[in-house]
Design a protein that fits this description.
The protein is α+β, with helices and mostly antiparallel strands. Helices cover 44% and strands 9% of the residues. Strand 7 and strand 8 form a beta hairpin. The longest helix has 32 residues. The structure holds protoporphyrin IX containing FE.
């Protein structure tokens, strides 16, 4: 069957009752060329599922991240990558060379060394959440009580966002990453977040603290509106992603206890779940051939990182959770110039979260059968809505 004979498939492929990543990815990787998909907007996009092709898409200069280009795809009816007019400083939506100015400004804040210095603060946040859970009894929703607050408190403290405002920005973020959010609701959430950050930046200008926002203000490379947009990107990118990975990882470690405390588990969990499967959207700005498929200028492309990370030609027995393998070449954080800025931080957060949780609550177990866990099918990110757990009193 040639590419043109195939009917476009509906998007996204992640659906209730189906395993993740979608079983169709196996079939698509084996086909010649690429598979077309119809987005909820009615637009068509090319789905990229082979590891090699995903890396090519994410590095080819004829393929852009900028939604200002005609044909740029949106994952939901309203959800999409904001343009620089909507949110200046949303640099994940810029191509080189403009993108480089932001990246160079921010990279020193997220180096392995810099993140290592954050370890004691992250440990304190994790311990405080576990203290609160233990004090409240012997059951918890591990998403609401642990997986979400930990990265949320870490990114707020790094940026200099007051702890008390966590509920506000988490609620707004949820609207922005839910595929079914309405237009007005989304715009209102985005405006409210930007207004909030503008006010916070005005306060930091007068009273700088020991935080990333104050350091960026002092450095002066970014304009005021750009700084608000950068902060919004970091706040949003910095908590839901990690929260989903922490939650799913706990479920897997509970059924594979021999890997608890082994640092290799973190990398394999990142590969295995690839929660940001629907994050990297692109458009061709020139005609380009990917995986034997001609893509015309103006056509949308979705490199599916979960599909790439389950490509059997790169990862043997990809559906198996095996931290003993070398998962380093996974693309859960993307690839190329936009590769996740927060990846060093994520690794440390996940490592401390799992280590401390299982050390301090060794009797931790699921409070419902694994099949009853509510998985996210309506989000840009894969994860769990809730994770009911229990433990023996006195743990
Ligand atoms: C498990 C957690 C995370 C995953 C799976 C993840 C995944 C990704 C992916 C796939 C991209 C590439 C997007 C693209 O190419 O269009 C990306 C970019 C980015 N991520 Fe993450 N991310 C995570 C956590 C974080 C955290 C904690 C932060 C912030 C502290 C962060 C900040 C960013 C930023 C700023 C970018 C854009 C980088 C650029 O355009 O240069 N992420 N992330």
């Amino acid at each position: 069957m040639t590419t043109t004979d195939r009917c476009p498939v509906a998007f996204p492929l992640r659906r209730p009752g189906k395993p993740f990543p979608a079983p169709e990815y196996v079939e698509y990787r084996a086909l010649d060329g690429l598979v077309e998909s119809v987005l909820p907007t009615g637009a068509r996009v090319w789905l990229v599922t082979r590891h090699e092709d995903v890396r090519t898409v994410l590095t080819d200069p004829r393929i852009s991240s900028n939604p200002a280009h005609p044909g740029f795809p949106r994952p939901g009816k309203t959800v999409g990558v904001p343009s620089q007019d909507e949110v200046p400083g949303w640099f994940v939506a810029l191509d080189p060379p403009e993108h480089g100015r932001f990246r160079r400004t921010l990279i020193p804040e997220f180096t392995v060394r810099q993140v290592r210095e954050m370890r004691p603060a992250i440990q304190q946040i994790v311990d405080a959440r576990i203290d609160a859970m233990l004090a409240a009894g012997s059951t918890a929703d591990l998403i609401a009580d642990f997986a979400l607050p930990v990265p949320s408190l870490v990114i707020s403290s790094l940026l200099g966002v007051p702890k008390a405002d966590r509920d506000f920005f988490e609620a707004k973020t949820r609207v922005l990453v839910t595929l079914s959010s309405g237009d007005e609701e989304r715009e209102a959430a985005s405006r409210a977040l930007l207004r909030y950050l503008n006010r916070l930046i005005a306060v930091k200008r007068k009273r700088p603290g020991d935080d990333l926002l104050s350091r960026l203000l002092a450095e002066g490379t970014l304009s005021g509106p750009e700084l608000s947009g950068v902060s919004m990107l970091l706040l949003i990118a910095g908590h839901e992603t990690t929260a989903n990975n922490i939650g799913l990882g706990v479920v897997t470690l509970l059924s594979h206890p021999r890997w608890i405390g082994d640092e290799r588990a973190v990398e394999e969990l990142l590969r295995y779940y690839s929660v940001a499967d629907l994050v990297a959207f692109r458009v061709a700005v020139e005609d380009v051939e990917i995986g034997g498929q001609l893509i015309r200028a103006g056509e949308g492309i979705v490199p599916l990182v979960a599909a790439a990370n389950h490509d059997g030609t790169v990862f043997e027995r990809p559906a198996e959770f095996d931290p003993g393998r070398s998962a380093r070449s996974h693309v859960a954080f993307g690839y190329g110039v936009h590769q996740c800025l927060g990846q060093n931080l994520v690794r440390v957060e996940m490592d401390i979260a799992y280590r401390t949780l299982f050390e301090r609550i060794p009797t931790l177990e699921l409070a419902v059968p694994v099949e009853e866990l509510p998985l996210k099918y309506d989000g840009v990110l894969y994860g769990l809505h809730a994770l009911p757990v229990r433990w023996q009193e006195g743990a």
